[in-house]
Write a structure and sequence with these properties.
The strands form 5 sheets. This protein has a 4-stranded antiparallel beta sheet with strand order 2-3-1-4, with helices on both faces. A two-stranded antiparallel ribbon has the order 5-6. A two-stranded antiparallel sheet has the order 7-8. The protein is built from 26 helices and 12 strands. The longest helix is centred in the middle third of the chain and has 38 residues. It holds the Pfam family Anoct_dimer.
């Protein structure tokens, strides 16, 4: 016997006869019956209502929209409307059916009249194919069946996986370039003159790193740290940063071409979302009047104020992380453990990075459950679901961006630049000194922070992303599995039992919501930000992203096919506002990498020294490295008697005499501690480089965008041929009518 096909299943608790909830449920089901819906009731520990729409609804849809849906393969035997279209139409009608009490399904679910509403994962050929050929770890390196994904989950999900696959494929080139940069750093640049000078600086005594119990220290003690720094901070990094600016543009331009090809094959290139929504509204209610576009400057101002308030809160959290690092540094330097004292700075950076990751996780949870976001749709009053989703995306991305990057922005651009100097340190609450940069630069701190956050996000977060729904699904199965009947089943009861088993199996899966796909997109776009914006400080970011995405594609596939209820298919012909978000990130990447090289890196000070202050600038010395003497030149001297009164001045190191002059990293005069002329030369060079880098990179981006057309010629020619054929047919019809 053929299994009956049901478009949707509604689930409800068993309420008492005559109770308010039972009456409301009956009113809603009666409204569906009036529209010609077939409803089947199955009782178990819950009440299950199978819903099937009448055929005239789909005929109306096909008449209103000359739709190419019949080309899809996954259609029911008794009609040529695809399953994805059926589910989408039925979902729209269910969500917009109004009872006599003026309540919709959303209101009834809030009042616990219905517990759940979902389309079914059915034993279709497409589903079995996807489970075997896509949602398995063993097919990790095979091409994705995008057309099959479209036939089962709809165009929006298919476009997400097409975009993610394309992004992952092009990441391979960025990952290779990043790996070459790091290899070049470890081989060609590891033996740089700058790190060699730090390793040989056995007689250079540096100022204490804290006020109490911190000793003077010898510069050569940080030899390893200097070598790691110059492995990242070298000429190859500048080239790599420029390459990544071009890569980000080429990636988006090639994606536009890929998207144009894909949606043309689906006959959706010129699809109009607004027309589709109006058609569905009229199918549901012929008397429906379209909701007009609205805009209020007052409401927009309130939304802007709320968003700015949230950004201020996030910046406040970043300040809290800065305070943690400062206090942790002070505590570690006073620790009884020698290992902790010697590596106090590195430990403060690493624990700060872990704390930043924990903050990201907590704020993501807070964002998903509370915050002003729930109020914004009521304030903005978007006309369509698509508008509401776009508004939501922009605000939540802004929130997540500041959550992820505020601490990194501090390390990249403020750490070691606002801390003052010995004898006049900038302090938090008048007590704790702000951190200083290492004599070889601050870029290693940024490297460590990004490495830890990316590694934690790609290990712990991905494991939890899979484990939580897996555990939840198995707990639901154990809790909700019905007792098996021991009596013989009649044919009718057996058919009912087949439905019951299928519906229960779907009900045991985890719930999906309208923004489930949004969360997947957000995760990838934040990762794309890490891969591009500060990539100059962490060239391995694309490689880590590549490994993560290979896993992520199949992790998402397994979750959607095996752990979650079927997502309501949505029609789309692009990835929506995410494209504009990615383009904005591309511009931020140029600015961010330019600032990292100009401000965070030591690239500019070294170049200024080479051409203006080194021995090479005074006379031609072909056999000498022009950066010779750079470290000594970059240090300023400080008189011990000028320490602040409450500073506990440590004893002099045993092997050195009580010389009153010690050193610190800065460009200041020895007598009054004002900035030297060299400081202003470097400042001007940083500014000039930043302007030059950003203008060159943006020009190259514009040239790349012009050079690679958004739409391939074969797609343009296909539309040209179609227009020509349609006009010829119309002209023949007019001429035959005249005759």
């Amino acid at each position: 016997q053929n299994e009956e096909k049901w478009d949707f299943v509604l689930v409800s608790d068993i309420h008492e006869m005559g109770s308010e909830k039972e009456i409301k449920r009956k009113k809603f089901l009666d409204e569906l019956s009036k529209k010609g819906f077939t409803i089947k009731k199955i009782e178990d520990t819950k009440l299950f209502y199978g819903v099937r729409a009448p055929q005239h609804i789909f005929r109306k849809y096909q008449c209103l929209l000359s739709n190419p849906d019949s080309r899809q393969q996954n259609s029911n035997a008794h009609d040529d409307v695809p399953v994805t279209t059926r589910i989408r139409i039925v979902h729209f009608i269910l969500q917009n059916t109004v009872t006599s009490d003026l309540e919709k399904l959303r209101d009834l679910m809030k009042k616990k009249v219905f517990e759940a509403a979902f389309p079914l994962h059915e034993k279709e050929e497409v589903r079995e194919f996807l489970k075997e050929k896509w949602a398995r770890w063993r097919v990790m390196f095979k091409q994705q069946p995008i057309e099959k994904i479209r036939c089962y989950f709809g165009e929006k999900v298919a476009l997400y996986f097409a975009w993610l696959g394309w992004y992952t494929y092009l990441l391979a080139f960025a990952a290779l370039a990043g790996l070459v940069t790091v290899v070049a750093g470890t081989t060609v640049f590891s033996s740089s003159q700058v790190s060699k000078e730090i390793c040989d600086a056995n007689n250079t005594i540096m100022c204490p790193l804290c006020d109490q119990k911190c000793p003077f220290w010898v510069l050569s003690d940080t030899c390893t740290y200097a070598k790691v720094t110059h492995m990242i901070d070298n000429e190859a990094t500048v080239v790599f940063a420029m390459f990544m600016a071009i890569w980000a543009t080429v990636f988006l331009e090639l994606w536009k071409r890929e998207r144009a090809t894909v949606v043309t094959d689906w006959d959706l290139y010129g699809w109009d979302e607004e027309e589709e929504e109006l058609a569905l509204e009229l199918i549901n209610n012929l008397q429906h009047e379209p909701r007009l576009y609205q805009h209020s400057y007052f409401r927009s101002t309130i939304v802007l104020v709320l968003v700015l308030l949230m950004i201020v809160v996030l910046i406040g959290i970043a300040h809290a992380l800065v305070i943690y690092r400062v206090v942790a540094m002070a505590l570690f330097t006073q620790s009884h453990l020698e290992l902790l004292r010697e590596h106090a700075n590195t430990m403060a950076v690493m624990t700060g990075a872990v704390l930043h990751y924990i903050t990201i996780v907590i704020m993501t949870k807070v964002r998903s459950h509370t915050g002003p976001w729930a109020l914004l749709p009521f304030l903005e009053k978007p006309r369509t679901f698509s508008q509401r989703e776009n508004n939501f995306i922009v605000k939540i991305f802004t929130f997540q961006f500041f959550t992820n990057f505020s601490s990194l922005i501090y390390i990249a651009f403020f750490l070691g630049r606002i801390n003052g100097h010995p004898g006049h340190y900038v302090r938090i609450a008048g007590r704790w000194r702000l951190e200083e940069c290492h004599p070889s630069g601050c870029i290693t701190d940024l490297f460590i922070q990004m490495a830890i956050i990316m590694l934690l996000k790609q290990t712990i977060s991905n494991i939890m992303e899979y484990l939580i729904p897996w555990i939840s699904h198995h707990l639901r199965k154990q809790h909700k599995r019905p007792k098996k009947r021991s009596v013989m089943l009649g044919e009718e009861e057996e058919a009912e039992d087949l439905c019951k088993r299928q519906w229960l199996k779907n009900y045991e899966l985890n719930e999906v919501n309208i923004f489930s796909l949004f969360n997947e997109f957000l995760e990838m776009v934040i990762q794309y930000s890490f891969t591009t914006i500060f990539v100059a400080a962490f060239p391995l970011a694309p490689l880590l992203a590549l490994f993560n995405n290979i896993v992520e594609i199949h992790l998402d596939a397994i979750k959607m096919m095996r752990l979650y209820r079927r997502m309501v298919p949505r029609k789309a012909n692009d990835i929506g506002i995410w494209l504009q978000v990615l383009e904005a990130i591309g511009i931020l990447a140029v600015i961010g990498n330019g600032l990292v090289i100009a401000i965070t890196s030591d690239f500019i000070p070294v170049q200024v020294y080479k051409y203006m202050y080194s021995p090479c600038s005074r006379e031609n010395r072909t056999g000498m490295d022009c950066s010779t003497g750079y470290i000594n030149n970059s240090l300023s001297v400080f008189r011990i008697q000028d320490f602040e009164p409450h500073t506990n001045v440590p004893d002099m190191l045993q092997e050195f005499d009580g010389d009153q002059i010690k050193e610190y990293r800065d460009y200041r005069n020895a007598d009054d501690y004002t900035y030297t002329v060299q400081f202003w030369h470097i400042f001007a060079a940083r500014l000039a480089f930043l302007i030059l880098f950003e203008h060159v990179a943006l020009c190259v981006k514009l040239i790349a965008a012009w050079y690679i057309p958004d739409v391939p010629q074969k797609v343009k020619n296909k539309f040209l041929g179609r227009k020509h054929t349609n006009l010829r047919k119309e002209l023949r019809w007019v001429m035959s009518w005249k005759v």
